[in-house]
TrEMBL record:
<dbReference type="Pfam" id="PF10294">
    <property type="entry name" value="Methyltransf_16"/>
</dbReference>
<protein>
    <recommendedName>
        <fullName>Ribosomal protein L11 methyltransferase</fullName>
    </recommendedName>
</protein>
<dbReference type="InterPro" id="IPR029063">
    <property type="entry name" value="SAM-dependent_MTases_sf"/>
</dbReference>
<dbReference type="GO" id="GO:0032259">
    <property type="term" value="P:methylation"/>
</dbReference>
<comment type="similarity">
    <text>Belongs to the methyltransferase superfamily. METTL23 family.</text>
</comment>
<dbReference type="GO" id="GO:0008168">
    <property type="term" value="F:methyltransferase activity"/>
</dbReference>
<keyword id="KW-0808">Transferase</keyword>
<dbReference type="InterPro" id="IPR019410">
    <property type="entry name" value="Methyltransf_16"/>
</dbReference>
<keyword id="KW-0949">S-adenosyl-L-methionine</keyword>
<keyword id="KW-0489">Methyltransferase</keyword>
Amino acid sequence: MLHLLPPLPALPGGWKETTFELPGRKLQIILPGDPDHLLEDPEVLAANERDDYMPYWSYLWPAAGPFARAMQSAPWPRGAEVLDLGSGVGLTGVSGLVRGDQVIFSDYDPQSLLLSRHNAVRNGLADPETLLLDWRRPMERQFRVITGCEVTYERRNHEPLIALLTSMLAPTPEGEFPSVVWIADPGRYHAAAFVALARESGFVVTILDEELKEQPAPRSNAFQIMQLVRG
């Protein structure tokens, strides 16, 4: 139940609620009222000095909405265990839960994980599993499906992310659906570089649009899903 969760902490700029529509269902999503206020928070500034930390989790990024809708038509079997990377406010992971998948929310920031739990439970879903995950230190655990929304915007994160995917994407058992990674992106400049690195690292990459139609190359300023499977 929602009242059994730890409360959300006080936040510079406060919290707000928004409604997001999936096919046939509306979600009520809590998110920071003004994420830019966090950039001046003393704890954030100190963390930035220590480890170049930025509160990216607090923004509802442009690709999150179309990705949440696309998740409803994902090709893997419903009920699959899905690792969601960089869960942020939890919208795309909650969409996966609505679909019927067993979503494990992961993020570098514990505030994201608590918020994702609140957003799952307030929409009538079970309190999900969460993982505090640093991409530079992959866990010894593997998943048949890994998703991520807007996780390739910084070029410096590409190599650690590919290393994590190489380590944590489970092999495909004989005769079963392919183990797969879905990375959503709004058509940012660095997407092509990520695709190139993924291919160099042995992944077969397919570019999909919001209707899951295959595209010939990474898109510019347009939503896309970078689908990775092992070569």
